[in-house]
Amino acid sequence: MENELTRIERKQNMENQISMEFDALSENEGLARVVIAAFVARVDPTVDQVEDVKTAVSEAVTNAIIHGYAEKGGRVVMKARLSDEGELSVDIIDSGVGIADVEQAMQPLFTTGAENERSGMGFSFMEAFMDGLEVESSPGQGTHVHMWKRFVCAQEQSAPILQAAVWNRSGRL
Amino acid sequence: MEQKMEEYAIIDNYLCIRMPKEVDHHGAAGIRECADRMILDDKVKNIVFDFEDTTFMDSSGLGIIIGRYRKISCFGGKVYAINTSERIGKILRSSGMSSIIEILA
């Protein structure tokens, strides 16, 4: 009986999902970062892990705004899913121009935004800071970036109280 | 883009740019324009990016640095990144920036 209850309780808390849609404006890059940072806080990630996810999200959202919509505006969707075990997945979806050659676009230093001094490191950053990355896109069909990361039980690495101290001292969200 | 002159200072022929708390695409154009205007007007030779206030930087920051490096390196100028946090330093080094700029913690 007790087991049954624990199981039901667990099932209810097993996964959390969010979805947000926003205008493809550069000021919303910061908003997307703040939202994803708050979203993953539940599994007690390290400061570095939070920064990793924020950076990857920032890259994907920036890509949607600059390349997908050519800075002319549109809508960007961010979906995120987080399990109690610390499995995070994030999707950044736009309905912009899409990418003809995804493999080429993902090459380090490849950029079509040279005149705006884009470094061509966006996808490389996503790959470096997350555990996995998949990009689905074709011309006229928009772009769907799917990435995931596993938070290796940060709770076991350091006591929560200690982590809170580190968190506050760094002055970061 | 709102212009904050106090973030830019010229000491000798060094242009010092105080980078914002978050360096992303949103603020990149403003920094670029302001820096380039000062490079042209004031005969700046070297550029110092001061990351003291910076807690976040994505690949847009690399674009800003590479762009300024291109503008001044042909005249023998140098680019420095100073007061870099552990994370900012890691991002700069792992993306190969240490081959064109000097990174000081």
Oligomer: heterodimer
**Spatial gap, N to C terminus of chain A:** 41 Å
Distance N terminus to C terminus of chain B? 29 Å
**What's the alpha carbon Rg of chain B, rounded to whole Å?**
12 Å
Q: Identify the CATH homologous superfamily of chain A.
A: Histidine kinase-like ATPase, C-terminal domain
Relevant terms:
heterodimer, A: 173 residues, alpha+beta, Heat Shock Protein 90, globular, B: 105 residues, Transcription Regulator spoIIAA, 23% strand
Describe the protein's architecture and organization:
The complex is a heterodimer of chains A (173) and B (105). Chain A is of the alpha+beta class. Chain A is 43% helix and 23% strand. Chain A has a five-stranded antiparallel beta sheet. The longest helix of chain A is centred in the N-terminal third of the chain and has 22 residues, at 47-68. Chain B has 105 residues and is an alpha/beta fold. Chain B has one domain (5-103): STAS domain (Transcription Regulator spoIIAA, 2-Layer Sandwich), CATH 3.30.750. Chain B contains three helices and seven strands. Chains A and B meet through helix 2, helix 3 and helix 5 of A and helix 1, helix 2 and helix 3 of B.
Brief sketch in words of this structure:
The complex is a heterodimer of chains A (173) and B (105). Chain A has 173 residues and is α+β, with helices and mostly antiparallel strands.
Summarize the topology.
The complex is a heterodimer of chains A (173) and B (105).
Chain A (H helix, E strand, L loop, with lengths): L1 H12 L1 E9 L3 H14 L6 H22 L6 E9 L3 E8 L7 H4 L16 H8 L2 E6 L5 E8 L3 H4 L2 H11 L3
Antiparallel strand pairs in A: 1-2, 2-3, 3-5, 4-5
Helix pairs in contact in A: 2-3, 3-5
Chain B lengths: L7 E4 L2 E5 L3 E2 L1 H17 L4 E5 L5 E2 L1 H15 L5 E4 L3 H9 L7 E2 L2
